C-alpha cells in the first residue's frame, strides 16, 4: 500500500479542496433511527450529504470503517495521503483528522459507531476488552481484502445493513452489537494472517495495548512514565521493556510522539491561538510548548501552521 507523506518543511500546500480551515468536529448521528448507535452509508451518499465538510479536514468522535468497493481514490489521515483501491479497508480512530477526496469512479461503504457501542449493555469479557481489541486491529495503512476474504466481509456488512433496515425493537441493539463484533473479529483474523510476525495476545501484549490506549486518553494530563506504569499495574522497568519490544520505542518517546501529533492536528485549525493550544495540551507556558515543538519538528508552531497554507 503506498503512502504519500505530506512535505511539512518545503511549504508544500495541502490539496485545494482540503486547505486550511476551521477544523469541524462531528458527533455521531443516527441516520434513520435515533436508537441505533451504528450506521452504514455509501461514500457517494456521505459526500453528497456533507460535501462542504467531509472534503475538508475534520474530526469525528466515533470510529469509522471504510471499505472501498469500486475504483480508486485517496484519503487523508493525520498528514498522510493514502491511495485506496477496490478491496482496501481503512479504519479512522476517534479524534483523527481526516478528509475524503472527490472521485468519480470510486465508491465504498462506511460503517460508523461510537466508542462505547460494543460495551453497551454487555457483560461479555470480549466486549469489555474492546479498547485493546480495536487497538490491535488498527494499522496505519489500508488493509487489502482479497477474493473469498472480501466476500466474507461484505456478507457480514450486509447482515448489519439488513438489521438496520428492520424496525427497531428491544433486541436490535444486541443483534447489531454481535454482528459488528463478528465483523471486527474477522477483520482482525485477516490482519493477523497478513502480519504473521504480529505478537500473540500475551499478557505483555495486552499491557502494551493498554499503554497505547492510556496515552491517547491521558496525554493532556502530562503524566510521568512512573504514573503510566502505576495505572497499568507494572514497574517502570517492565513498561520500558514492553514498549521497546512491541513498539520499538521508549515509553517517553511514545508519549512525546502522540503529543506532537495532537499538536499538529490542533495547529491545522487557524481559529485556535498558539497559547490556547499550549494550555489545552497541558503545558504551563506557551514558551514550553514552542520549545517542545521545535525540538522535534525543527520549526516553530507558527511556521508549521504557515506551511500548511
Structure notes:
- Residues 209-307 form the HTH araC/xylS-type domain.
- Pfam families: AraC_binding, HTH_18.
- This is Helix-turn-helix domain-containing protein.
- One of its GO terms (molecular function) is DNA-binding transcription factor activity.
- This protein has 309 residues and is α+β, with helices and mostly antiparallel strands.
- The protein folds into 2 domains: 3-194, Regulatory protein AraC (Jelly Rolls, Sandwich), CATH 2.60.120; 203-307, Arc Repressor Mutant, subunit A (Orthogonal Bundle), CATH 1.10.10.60.
- 47% of the residues lie in helices and 17% in strands.
- It is built from 12 helices and 11 strands.
- It has helices spanning 43-54, 125-128, 130-137, 147-164, 172-194, 203-218, 225-232, 236-247, 251-267, 274-280, 286-297, 301-307, and strands at 3-5, 24-26, 38-42, 58-60, 63-70, 72-77, 80-85, 88-92, 97-100, 107-113, 143-144.
- The strands form 2 sheets. It has a 6-stranded mixed β-sheet. A 5-stranded antiparallel β-sheet has the order 3-10-5-8-11.
- Helix 3 packs across helix 6 (203-218), helix 4 runs antiparallel to helix 5 and helix 6 (203-218) crosses helix 8.
- The longest helix is centred in the middle third of the chain and has 23 residues, at 172-194.
